[in-house]
Design a protein that fits this description.
The complex is a heterodimer. Chain A contains three helices and seven strands; from the N terminus they run αββαββββαβ. Chain A is of the alpha/beta class. Chain A has a single domain, classed as Beta Polymerase, domain 2. The model of chain A has no long low-confidence stretch (mean pLDDT 86). Chain B is of the alpha+beta class. Chain B has two domains: 280 residues, Cytochrome-c3 Hydrogenase, chain B; 38 residues, no CATH class. Chain B contains 15 helices and ten strands. In chain B, strands 1-2-3 form a three-stranded antiparallel sheet. About 2% of the residues of chain B have low confidence. Classes of the chains: A alpha/beta, B alpha+beta. Chains A and B meet through β3, β4 and α3 of A and α1, α8, β6, β7 and β8 of B.
């Protein structure tokens, strides 16, 4: 048996169930698996991961600006390891389905994706924005790579540069 | 009875953290609640992208005043994994010692806050006095009480000398003695029981569903101690117990934290007696990657998770930080509902949201154009002189 028995088993089960929807599966090391899923099957996958594979928590969702596409990395955890599920959506019209139906604890992380990256989360119940202030411009997304501090608060353009020397 | 909605926070005398709760009340009973976060957003993740890996240690240490070592260690495990740096055993041991001292510091602080919130101020005074012992240990090792600045890429910045080892062991014994008293007090004292039992209930399945972590989760019977299940640093080699409790209430959270103190003392003793010889850091190139890593760390409040993406330059492409309190806030509305308004501060405090403190003064003399830093002894001397001029002599205290 290989060194990564548990991880190989997970990989086989997922490929068996989701087939072509899954790509770029990497077993990085023990207890670390990464793969990409098509956005349409995200909720179905999350359901399977929770009920079938015993991953009972989304520890956090990392938003990543990859240029043409915006990525959301769902870090699912069980007792022993982290499986990172990547979902990608085009920058021009970013949409992802909510996973709060499966993992209610993911709500603040999804709001963060919406606020910081401008990814529209379909099905997320209405509520206050998080983490940006209520008066922050709604068409600016600070964690996108093309965003600079002065975009939202022009007066800060004159403040000392924080770039590393 | 008519329903009334009241705001609690973000600025409120009974709440030390900038967070807002909307509570729907029927008389004294809470029937609904929502939590609003984001009052303390500082844009650290964006700032981290424009700094070098080394500068980010300084930045991430300031995510939280109490978990300062937790965040840098978690971030560095990711960076070192991408850079394929092999951290020396001695550095890992020193990181473990500081991590456990930090946990003791945080849990004792929480115990004080809990005492304060339940109206048992003697407990607050006692546990904060004892907390000075562990703060002195941290100061002895790192030179600082709050931001220890022990970590660097590839290891730690300061070594632990045999004298420091003896001193830490001496103070740990004092704390162990005191903790025995707190365990007795926490489980037998009528005030504590009356104010904590059946308050802020969070059943096991709800906690599981909402992803509750740390001592809050363990008090609902969830086995979620990262140190045990996915050992990092030296935890895989150490003998300690994972503490869980099954009462699902504030009392359980108190018991879990107090018993974890005992485990931390055990860990510190084991690591100090094991402390292998060797270097305390390895050299790591400034340019790292490309690559990505994600790692977990058991901070005093629960699981801390970091994601780092490197692009081959000296600055990270993306750093994601998820602090434990964030995960636990989701469960607070559930704990508040059907409880009483008077229990709200206690329930909120029971997840241990953060607070920070500092105790150094820097004085800038405009005439001499010089900065003078006052340490504890200087401040004490100044205080005694100040009162002496007014006819009170404190010098014998």
């Amino acid at each position: 048996m290989s060194e990564f028995e548990k991880e190989e088993k997970l990989k086989a089960q997922l490929e068996d169930k989701f087939g072509g929807a899954i790509s770029d599966m990497i077993i990085q090391r023990k207890d670390r698996v990464w793969f990409e899923i098509k956005a349409e099957q995200l909720v179905e996958l999350m359901n399977f991961m929770k009920t079938g594979m015993g991953f009972n928590r989304v520890s956090t969702i990392t938003g990543v600006d990859e240029g043409e596409k915006l990525g959301a990395f769902y870090h699912l955890t069980d007792e022993n390891g982290i499986v990172t599920v990547r979902a990608k959506t085009p920058r021009t019209d970013p949409h992802l389905p909510t996973i709060t139906g499966v993992f209610p604890g993911a709500e603040p992380y999804e709001r963060e994706l919406a606020d910081m990256f401008g990814i529209k989360i379909d099905g997320l119940k209405p509520g206050r924005r998080y983490p940006l202030p209520d008066d922050f411009p709604t068409d600016q997304y600070p964690l996108r790579k093309d965003w600079k501090v002065g975009d939202a608060y022009p007066e800060e353009k004159t403040s000392p540069a924080t770039e590393a020397k | 009875m008519t329903k009334m909605t009241i705001p609690l926070g973000p600025q409120h005398p009974a709440l030390k953290e900038p967070v807002n709760f909307s509570l729907v009340l029927e008389g004294e009973q809470i029937t609904g609640s929502t939590v609003n976060l984001g009052y303390n957003h500082r844009g650290i993740e964006k700032a981290a992208e424009s700094r070098t890996y080394l500068q980010d240690i300084y930045l991430l240490e300031r995510v939280c005043g109490i978990c300062s070592h937790s965040h840098t260690t978690c971030y560095l495990t990711c960076v070192e994994e991408i850079a394929k740096a092999e951290v020396p055993e001695r550095a890992k041991a020193i990181r473990t010692i500081v991590a456990e001292l930090e946990r003791i510091h945080s849990h004792l602080l929480w115990l004080g806050i809990a005492g304060y919130e339940m109206g048992f101020e003697t407990l607050f005074m006692y546990s904060w006095r004892d907390r000075e012992q562990v703060l002195d240990c941290l100061e002895l090792v790192s030179g600082n009480r709050v931001h220890y600045a022990m970590n660097t890429i590839g290891g730690v910045r300061r070594d632990i000398t045999p004298e420091q080892k003896t001193e830490i062991l001496r103070r740990v014994s004092i704390l162990e003695e005191r903790t025995k008293y707190y365990i007795k007090l926490g489980t037998e004292e009528a005030t504590v029981l009356a104010r904590t039992q059946n308050v802020g209930l969070l059943p096991h399945d709800v906690a599981m569903n909402l992803g509750t972590i740390g001592p809050t989760g363990r008090a609902s019977g969830i086995k979620c101690d990262v140190r045990k299940h996915e050992p990092y640093l030296l935890y895989g080699k150490l003998d300690f117990k994972e503490i869980t409790h099954d009462t699902n209430d504030v009392f359980g959270r108190l018991v879990v934290r107090v018993l974890e103190l005992v485990e931390s003392y055990k860990i510190i003793r084991q690591v100090l007696n094991y402390l292998p010889d060797g270097p305390i850091a390895v050299k790591v190139p400034a340019k790292i990657g490309p690559g990505e890593a994600t790692n977990r760390y058991e901070a005093p409040r629960g699981e801390d998770i970091h994601y780092v993406k490197a692009n081959g330059t000296d600055k990270p492409e993306r750093v994601k930080v998820r602090a434990p309190t964030m995960a636990n806030y989701v469960a607070v509305p559930y704990m508040l509902n059907s409880g009483y308004l008077a229990d709200a501060p206690m329930t909120i405090a029971a997840i241990d949201p953060c607070m920070s403190c500092t105790d150094r003064a820097m004085v800038y003399d405009t005439k001499k154009n010089k900065v003078r830093i006052y340490g504890w002894d200087d401040l004490r001397k100044l205080g005694i002189e100040h009162y002496k001029k007014r006819g009170v002599d404190f010098s014998k205290l």
